[in-house]
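User: I'm curious whether this sequence folds into something compact or stays loose and floppy. Could you predict its structure so I can see for myself?
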Amino acid sequence: MREIFKPDEFYFVPLGGSEEFGCNLNLYVCDDEYLAIDCGIGFADERMPGIDLLLPDPWLIEEARDKLKGMVITHAHEDHFGAVAYLWDRFECPIYATKFTAAVLRKKFEQEGVDNAKITIIEPGKTFKAGSYEIVPVPVSHSVPDSCSLVIKTRHGHVLHSGDWNLDPAPIIGSKTEESAFRAIGDEGILAYVGDSTNSQVDGYSGKEEDVAKGMAAEFKDCKGMIAVTIFASNIGRLISILRAAQETGRSVALLGRSLHRMVGCAIDCGYMKDLPAFVTEDEIAHIPRENLVLVVTGSQGEHRAALARISRGDHRSVSLGKGDTVIFSSRAIPGNERKINTVKNNFSAAGVKIITPRDTKHIIHVSGHPCKEEILSMLQWTRPQCVIPVHGERLQLDAQAKLAASCQVQDVIVPNNGSVIRLAPARPAIVDHVETALLAVDQRRIIPATHQSITARRKLQYSGTVHASLVLDKKMKLLGDIKVDTVGLTCERHDDCILTDLKRYIKDILPEVIAETNHNEDDIAEAVRIPLRRYVSDMLGLTPKTTVHVTLINI
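Assistant: Here's the prediction. I'll summarize afterward.
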């Protein structure tokens, strides 16, 4: 590997999560020591058939694993920690996380069969060391407990790595983001602020979770039948809001979805769900009047196999929704997931189910866990960094935060791409190099490159169909039996069998010439038939399908 980092300099490299949502993976390199921050998943779209999850490719870290002093996870959201278990054999380093994050990560390791990972629980406000890095986790409010920003201290200066945060003044669960703590950090001097850009285009403030509890209660009072509320499974604060709203309106709450049960189990183990009504089990749902029940379900992003999508299709084993029932979307759509979400909504609408999103009601049923414009401006004014590096978002969000930083007269504002090698010190911060970045795909139980030929082939099949022909020849190159032709995704104007008839006739017509001009072996004959057959289909239908030909020679 070429030399990228000088041993006496301090660098930041986003390897995922910049110019995209999800797949967050960030690398700091100081004095030839590596420190990884977060390692999360992303969601695949229709361009990757058969793939649900994407992971950042950690090749750069893997090639220098002996230099990796640790990985710090800022909070328990899948886009920040969900890839760790899948990629563990490429890291195998000390992991540092707060109590709740560590509990959720252990569950993920169990799920993926990882049994050799060491997780050190860190306490907010208490400095710990990873190699020569001194790191202070600073508690912040977010939609999952125990979230923290990180002050990363080196001999070259301090970096504030924000993680995800907002300025909810009275979080239902977890700590608030304390102005005094971040002013003190600014007083010490911040070389660079590496900050969340998710809501940097949104005016004002993200809102208060306690208002969601009130808004949910008001919404529940207006609903007559069964209610299903879909949220991110890790949003424990939102779950508590729903429990309180249900209690106020005389409803019981049931959980549907394995990830919800895992998260709630971790929250209970960590002591975050005391003095709250108990959940009813899935088996008890049928015995409770519909008008007295709230379901909390996974699948807010339209995931095909999640509980919400299965209910919408009518294939959930214990729950069905129909006329008089209500589905509440207490979440935001991650860009790229809109089509899948709309499919679920359309299914419910066709069944007469009322759909409520944050846009459809005067009540507050969702607030974001990410800072909006005024919150970002407050953070920059408190900490007064020399340099701002926006991360966590697509290019529009990164540029929007850069504009906010410029309005605060920040000396240096650097908008990175994934792979930008940013020298933070000792000279003035600047992009000095670029490394290749890539995505990996979770394909069943395998991890493969997102550019793998199998995915490319599936995508091609989606749009162009397939043709497969099989023929048997004797030693005199005479055709034995009928030519077998199968197609997928192809049709013609006359009738369904016309293509098969035409293709068989065409192969018979070209076969003598093919045999005369090729070596008499199976592979050469098959390829000599395949090429004109593919061209013939393209001319006939205007498509270029995946075309395969199988030839068998029998010595009779």
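Summary: The chain has a mean pLDDT of 92. DSSP finds 15 helices and 27 strands in the chain.
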